[in-house]
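Title: Comparing notes on inverse folding

I've been comparing how different people in this forum approach sequence design from structure. To keep things fair, I'm posting one structure and asking everyone to reply with a full sequence. Here's the target:
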């Protein structure tokens, strides 16, 4: 699919820098840039070899030199968009970049829409939709692990696996359709005996892939981690100790934290979005009451909860109320203030903290923090293929398509066990094939495609 028009945009961040890049893509790229570029060697860009760099100047239609530039020319289809692409390397800064861009526009290009270069790469078959989403994940990656996962997806880890699954389904569908079209060649054994075990194995592989979804999302976006507890148990002190900076205000006055304080923590390449919440208690203070409600919302939305208990004071009624609120979440219980006398009994441990891991720390003395970080890290990696750079489901759109494929395949297995006719199987097999295709962008509606690409910046 080739586009008729040629697009251009600034591909580097706006601001002062060493260089800035203007990207141009389309069938008239070389002709358009040639109108505004004067090479030092006097050559036209039409004479320049692909994948080479040419030195010269961008000039206005009046002959005024706008900037000294390097032109990187790449002829399709060996380019990102599979179209002719030129990248104009200018001096960094808004003034020269905009001046050069305007000359390119006047010469016949148009300003690209958000993500239009990547959209063209997708529509021209250069990459599939899973790889498109990986590009954005690379741009937005917060740690080495999230970058590694996104790079693996861009290289096709997920796409290749989906293709394997679809090939299995196609082979089964072909066998069924041959059986329907040429029943005289069937033997006495049911045709489903040939592929029932194969489909059951495929179903288990899809379920295994689905199990990577939550971990993949956490590695991409960060593990949403709520630090909760009643007032004055040391939540803000723990946040500051983990970050090794004074991010949150710490005082001896209960209710100091009025709103959720957010910060990112990197533990061995794993991103954690820490949410220091207001102490949960009954209060008449309107502002603090809003903070308490936000704390409760943070618990609901969190992937992981760090619940703090003051080990010196012991377990209070307010602690037990919070225990009830977090009982259905993944929880690490933290006994803080271990530098003081301990008043948590063995009976309390067995009665109230048996469903989660217990870590003893002193935020003040910064002891026990390494044990806590390892427990947080273990929460992410346990039983997950995501940290090994394998195929991973990394967002809700992919997850829902995979769930739909699993449901369709479950219907096929049920139909086989009920002895239903082969044509009934074919319908759900085609559905499973289609849902898997949605993961990589096959048969996706135009409005969904446009919404996905709107997340990108202009020059990508």
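Reply #1:
Here's my take.
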């Amino acid at each position: 699919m080739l586009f008729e028009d040629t697009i251009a945009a600034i591909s580097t961040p706006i601001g002062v820098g060493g260089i800035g890049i203007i990207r141009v893509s389309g069938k008239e790229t070389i002709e358009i840039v040639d109108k505004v570029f004067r090479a030092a060697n006097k050559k036209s860009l039409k004479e320049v070899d692909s994948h080479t760099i040419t030195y010269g100047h961008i000039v206005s239609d009046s002959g005024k030199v706008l900037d000294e530039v390097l032109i990187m020319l790449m002829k399709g289809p060996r380019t990102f968009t599979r179209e002719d692409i030129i990248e104009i390397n200018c001096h960094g800064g808004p003034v020269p970049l905009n001046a050069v861009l305007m000359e390119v526009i006047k010469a016949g290009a148009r300003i690209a829409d958000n993500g239009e270069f990547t959209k063209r790469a997708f529509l021209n078959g250069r990459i599939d939709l899973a790889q498109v989403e990986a590009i954005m994940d690379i741009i937005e990656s917060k740690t080495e692990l999230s970058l590694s996962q996104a790079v693996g997806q861009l290289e096709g880890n997920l796409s290749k696996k989906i293709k394997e699954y679809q090939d299995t389904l196609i082979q089964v569908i072909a066998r069924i359709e041959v059986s329907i079209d040429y029943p005289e060649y069937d033997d006495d054994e049911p045709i489903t005996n040939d592929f029932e075990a194969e489909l059951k194995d495929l179903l288990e592989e899809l379920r295994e892939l689905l199990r990577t979804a939550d971990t993949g999302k956490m590695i991409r976006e960060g593990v949403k981690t709520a630090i909760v507890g009643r007032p004055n148990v040391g939540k803000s002190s723990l946040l500051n100790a983990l970050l090794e900076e004074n991010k949150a205000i710490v005082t001896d006055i209960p209710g100091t934290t009025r709103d959720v304080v957010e910060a990112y923590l990197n533990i061995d390449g794993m991103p954690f979005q820490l949410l220091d919440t207001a102490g949960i208690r009954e209060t008449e203070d309107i502002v603090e009451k809003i903070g308490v409600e936000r704390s409760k919302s943070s618990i609901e939305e969190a992937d992981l909860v760090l619940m703090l208990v003051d080990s010196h004071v012991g377990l209070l009624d307010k602690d037990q109320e919070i225990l009830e609120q977090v009982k259905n979440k993944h929880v690490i219980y933290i006994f803080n203030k271990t530098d003081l006398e301990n008043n948590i009994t063995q009976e309390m441990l067995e009665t109230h903290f048996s469903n989660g891991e217990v870590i003893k720390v002193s935020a003040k003395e910064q002891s026990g923090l390494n044990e806590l970080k390892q427990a947080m890290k273990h929460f992410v990696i346990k039983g997950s293929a995501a940290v090994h750079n394998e195929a991973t489901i990394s967002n809700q759109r992919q997850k829902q398509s995979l769930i739909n494929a699993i449901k369709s395949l479950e219907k096929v297995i049920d139909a086989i066990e009920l002895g239903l006719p082969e044509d009934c199987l074919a319908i759900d097999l085609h559905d499973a094939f289609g849902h898997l295709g949605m993961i990589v962008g096959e048969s996706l509606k135009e409005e969904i495609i446009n919404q996905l690409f709107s997340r990108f910046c202009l020059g990508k």
